[in-house]
Amino acid sequence: MTELFEVPLLALLGQLLLGLVNGSFYALLSLGLAVIFGMLNIINFAHGAFYMLGAFAAWMLLSTFGVGYFGALVLAPILVGSLGILVERLLLKRLYRLDPLYGLLLTFGLALILEGLFRDWFGVSGETYEVPEALEGAINLGFMVLPKYRVWVVGFSILVCLATWLIIEKTRLGSYLRAATENPQLTQAFGVNVPLMVMMTYGFGVGLAALAGVMAAPIFQVSPLMGSNLIIVVFAVVVIGGMGSILGAIVSGLSLGLVEGLAKVYWPEASATVVFVIMAIVLILRPAGLLGKEQ
Fold it and tell me: Cα-flanking dihedrals φ and ψ of residue 222, to 5°?
């Protein structure tokens, strides 16, 4: 048993840094889910499919139109977010007065359709997407060599998460969004276009998922299965942070990435389930999540 904890400090630090990279993806994806649920009360099970679409959009932009990585960071979220707006206008807006279960079932079915289409078109082997030239190479930290691209992923993800939190919590636009969520009729009476805000909010949340997909493309293979392999963990992260809590999604995403890194050092067999164990404990002790609001 003592050998379990006799892990070199440098190896531990290296694994924590790698865990922080995974945590950055968890934070960005769970942020999009939290925005959609907090503002629209929709459990968006198609989030993993939109993440996959973002990665494929980056790959197609490069292979077909020659648009590089930094162009894809802008264009892919816009394209996939526009698809999300179309889904909201054609399908989801009909379900707002019904039980949230209907929205979950619809988005789950949409995820299956998108994944099935891309499996039929591209197979399951996946496509490669090269790291952009500007972010090639690595930084020698002494105890490990960390690729520059992974440093970029962590830094840019945290920047996007904090910017989103500031917009929603500290600006007039954010106050309109919160008001439209709590009392849409009264907010509409004050001249705020609530349907437009709802539509743009869903598109923004979907765009965040696509942005995460673009950032994941150079690290993971661009595959139709990449979203379904990740979305269950991301839902667990959102539940731990608190459904609809923006700050909770960010903090729990980054923290659970570090916890996974620790588990891979001290107990590798449990690294795939540690997030779900933590979720069960949090739900027992605080059903609303760590930073969620009690109903």
Answer: -75, 105
